[in-house]
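note to self: dont lose this again. the chain is below, predicted strucutre after it. 516 aa total, dont forget to put it in the shared folder this time
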Amino acid sequence: MQQLQQLYTQYAGCAPAQTVALQGAGSNRRYYRLFDNEGHTVIGVVGTSLDENHAFLYLARHFKQRQLPVPKVLAVSDDGLRYLQEDLGNRSLFDALKGGRDAGGRYNLTEQQLLVKTIRQLPNFQIRGARGLEWENCYPQPEFNEENVLFDLNYFKYCFLKPTDLDFHELKLEANFRLFAKDLVAEHTDSFMYRDFQARNVMLDSEGNPSFIDFQGGRKGPFYYDIASFLWQASAKYPDKLRRKLIYEYYESLKTFTEVPSKHHFVQRLSLFVLFRTLQVLGAYGFRGYFERKRHFIESIPPAMDNLRSLVASDAFPYPYLMDMLRRLTALPQFAVPQEGEPVVRTDGLCTTESNVYNAHQADGPATFSKYDGKGPLVVRVYSFSYRKGIPEDESGNGGGYVFDCRSTHNPGRYEPYKKLTGLDEPVIRFLEDDGEILTFLDSVYRLADAHVARYIQRGFTSLMFSFGCTGGQHRSVYSAQHLAEHIHEKFGIEVRVCHREQDIHSVLPAVGATL
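---
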């Protein structure tokens, strides 16, 4: 953080008036919005991979030279791990489409027009953006190839398929995977494959014109991939009629930039990439959901399985064993489509009524069923407090949870500049993080909390409480409580209620997908 602020100072000639951390994406990159005294902003990025940063910086400058709608790079640190870029605002296409998603895929005309604008801009990015591009700068590979495909198909096999316990013949499946991979890379292309083309990576200006971000994973590859990635995004629930309209708009736009195949050939090729992309995302959802227990990814599995169910209903794919296996996969009880009026049985472990989630010894016999099991969803409450005024009471009636004593860490309240501030204020945050003791303290807390939250989710418990105390309940405890709350919310996607008792500050981090 401090080094990023120093980079801003070098760029702007003065220190930022305010720095706000932005919600992270799937990578380890951290994003910040930095303000000057007049309210003007830039985006600061801190990356952990020099190669990934280099790819973004090279591509951003190249695309800007091609007059494509991407953020301008403003400054780069000497070590290449931090940079400043143009701020394209707060409104993403994903945010603008919320109404249609919440309505189950019934997108109004305004939302459809935004989608048309975006999909018509994509060929411009893919074809014109590829001209003059030095592919060796792409990360982690310069070109989409058979090896990429097989890696992702095996990712699906190990992270999604195997955990379902479906019986399948590995050698037959591998043979079909290899045929599939050869078909996907059979056509030579000189286009830029965005790879992560999704609504979250499209920013909109006041007139709804799209700009593109987070393209650092792009490479040379087939343009079909990005259409499949965008239009078959599981959570978007685009109806078939809208998908056909957007494919037509893309195809017509593509004609203005390059020679296009026949519509029949185009649709056939696209269907292969839709199947590939569906298996690819299920692999990611399996790893992020089943293994890392991230709720957002678990909740994305049912709509992705709906996409897969529609694909395997056709006979369009020349991979008989793969398709037979996928049909059996979609028919498994945990992926069954409930009939109208039938209660939905959760099988993702988030709200289970399974009475035995532990590996008990056979001699112990079955465990008795707890009346608290399977009541979910879990709500976590996190408090900061002053020990002088006592430990917060547990209003849930469960007797309380963890209480952590922050008084062993360096206290900013001992210094005059921080006496009237709290652990939510940037100068105090900077003091604590530069000192580092509180970060070591929280590392241990996170490990305890993660294991406890994961087990409570698995059991279907409804309430868990964490409290942080310090001398005055103003600096260290407030910082710790706020950061644990944000950590749990980001990792598990559940509702977290925060109470900084001595400041009388209350807030709610809603469960992913919930509306306030």
